[in-house]
Amino acid sequence: MSETTMERLVIAAPENVAVRLTGILRTAGIAPASVCHAGAQALEAAGQSGALLLTTYRLPDMAGEELARRLGEAGEVLMIVPQDYAESEETDNVLTLRNPISQDALVQALRALAHCLSRMEKLRLKADKLERTLEDRKIVDRAKGRLMDTLHLSEAEAHYRIQKQSMDSGRRIADVAREILESAEIAAS
User: Fold this and answer.
1) Less Cβ crowding at N or C end of the chain, within 10 Å?
2) pTM exceeding 0.70
3) Which positions ≥6 away from 17 have C-beta within 8 Å?
4) pLDDT at 47
């Protein structure tokens, strides 16, 4: 399990079950960040940190489904349910394990989920970076277009002008392009 995901592991189960789950995980070298015995405590422990929550179907103050629903996109839930459990509604952030479950299966499921979460987090960061890059390119292209229209430059000349101003001032090319667009908007009004 990745270190950052392990730091966010929260167990939410009745006290006797929580003790057993904690023991199983510690034997496997996994130390939960928090162990809670009620849903409200689990929500508080999970916070906004994108927790990985290992819970049971029933907690003293709420059902595991309600806990998962309230947690929402702030985390992922691995819920241990009875054999006859019928999922009442579709929840994207819940993976269920039917009880009885072997210790190895529990640990492997938790590790697999943690690996997937870690991978998704990396992909989300990469997507965010690509989105910012695309936005920057759009701004630079708009600024080049503005320079081409107002100063009657070729695309290469407009790009060179923005690039030179960026290098001379030590600022990002997208920031220089934004400034060009803003100054043109101010001049137009």
Assistant:
1) C
2) no
3) 56
4) 76
Q: CA 40, CA 167: separation in Å to the nearest integer? A: 54
- The stretch 148-166 carries a mean pLDDT of 95
* Cβ contact 46:74 at 8 Å: yes
Q: Are 56 and 34 in contact (CB under 8 A)?
A: no
Q: Which domains can be identified in the chain, with CATH numbers? A: 3-101 (3.40.50.2300), 127-188 (1.10.10.10)
What proportions of the chain, in percent to the nearest 5, are helix, strand and coil? 60, 15, 25
Mean pLDDT of the region 162-173: 96
What is the side-by-side order of every strand in the sheet holding 9-12?
34-36, 9-12, 51-56, 75-81, 94-98
Q: Please choose, from the candidates 42, 52, 41, the residue with its C-alpha nearest in 3D space to the C-alpha of residue 75.
A: 52
CB distance 12 to 57 below 8 Å: no
Higher pLDDT, 186 or 146: 146
- 93, 50 in Cβ contact below 8 A? no
